[in-house]
């Protein structure tokens, strides 16, 4: 028994604790750095769904999202943005900006069934977003203009699949 | 050479501290100074710094967007994303709200909430701009930390002159 106690006391606990602490601190620093970069500088997004066809595939695309532009107000018509859905804040959707505050936007009310269009003026501090695939997209045509504060990132660059690497075309 | 090493280590320390600080204030808890009179008497604010209240806001509620009626929340103004407002949450998604001035009853749409200031006379809130998307919410105010005389928890409370929704 006393041999066991002696061996137990011989283990360099102090050194082990110190090492564990410094490794833990380094890991925490790394995670914090990842958080800051992905939330404030450059994030990665994996958009899914048919609403942005043909600019974005149904699935399998990997995009870099620019988190600086929305904060500075460098988002304009034609940009593809990531925004928190106004219908469910836990969902993030990718749509194309069609109008900024004060712009007049004309949109098809019921695409595919009729040619009727409607024109609205986007209110102050809001933007008008629509999917490129107007036949299968839930966007400002249903829920109206969205506050600019919901924009979380600007999709700027596709890094996968390799055949389509490059900037996402910004069209009017 | 010595001063250069020293400068380097100071720079490294401040960058690390900044990164950790930003992460904590983004994900867990942050400190906000209140301006304006819309939440009087719960909180007071003046235009000059150091006179208004300073509050703690937790961010954990943003993981699942679970809120209760009566919570005091921080959110981005729907018409100007650079401004942050503090108001009391009155209506949750899917609830029926009675507008105080009229007898009109409206339903809060899915993914939205209804916010009002405690000081109805001097508050610019959902009564003027309507329900706001939950995605604009930035945090939930939990404690007042300054001035010392008012230090303490911010209670979840319901305005007396309103009938709670069923």
Features:
heterodimer; A: 172 residues; alpha+beta; Umud Fragment, subunit A; 2 domains; eight-stranded antiparallel beta sheet; two-stranded antiparallel sheet; 4 helices; 10 strands; 27% helix; 30% strand; B: 166 residues; two-stranded antiparallel ribbon; 18% helix; 32% strand; elongated; Pept_S26A_signal_pept_1_Lys-AS (chain B); mitochondrion inner membrane (chain B)
Total domains of chain A: 2
Can you summarize the main beta sheet of chain B? 8 strands, antiparallel
The residue-averaged pLDDT of chain B reads 85
Tell me roughly what share of residues is in helical segments of chain A: 25-40%
- Terminus-to-terminus distance of chain A: 81 Å
Beta content of chain B comes to 25-35%
Uncertain stretches of 5 or more adjacent residues of chain B: none
CATH fold-level label of the largest domain in chain A: Umud Fragment, subunit A
How far is it from the N-terminal to the C-terminal residue of chain B, by CA? 72 Å
Please provide the count of β strands of chain A.
Answer: 10
Oligomer: heterodimer
- Uncertain runs of chain A with pLDDT below 50, 5 residues or more? none
Cα Rg of chain B: 19 Å
Could you say which overall geometry of chain B the principal axes of the C-alpha atoms support?
elongated
Tell me the Rg of chain A in angstroms: 24 Å
CATH architecture descriptor text of the largest domain in chain A: Ribbon
